[in-house]
Design brief:
Length: 84
């Protein structure tokens, strides 16, 4: 079972962004998924499912939103390297 979120927006908004309604709504879904991933509220897999794509494609598109695919501190990265 899937649930829906209804978001009201001005009818002229997609046109103002030079997008179709479908393009705007898809971009809005991506923006929400990316932000929730960036906030560490969703895994990459769950975020990918939200936008109906695979995990690898989701991760490869993060740069369009200025979000790093891997967000580790220097200490976390060094610990990962030591455990590799």
């Amino acid at each position: 079972m899937s649930l829906q979120i209804k978001i009201n927006y001005p009818e002229t908004l997609p046109d103002a962004l030079q997008q179709t309604r479908e393009q705007f709504e898809q971009e809005a879904k991506w923006a929400m998924a990316v932000k929730l991933f960036e906030m560490k509220r969703l895994s990459s897999g769950m975020a990918a499912a939200l936008v109906d794509t695979d995990r690898v494609s989701f991760l490869l598109n993060l740069h369009h939103y200025g979000v790093a695919m891997i967000d580790l501190t220097e200490d976390e990265l060094l610990a990962d390297l030591q455990n590799a």
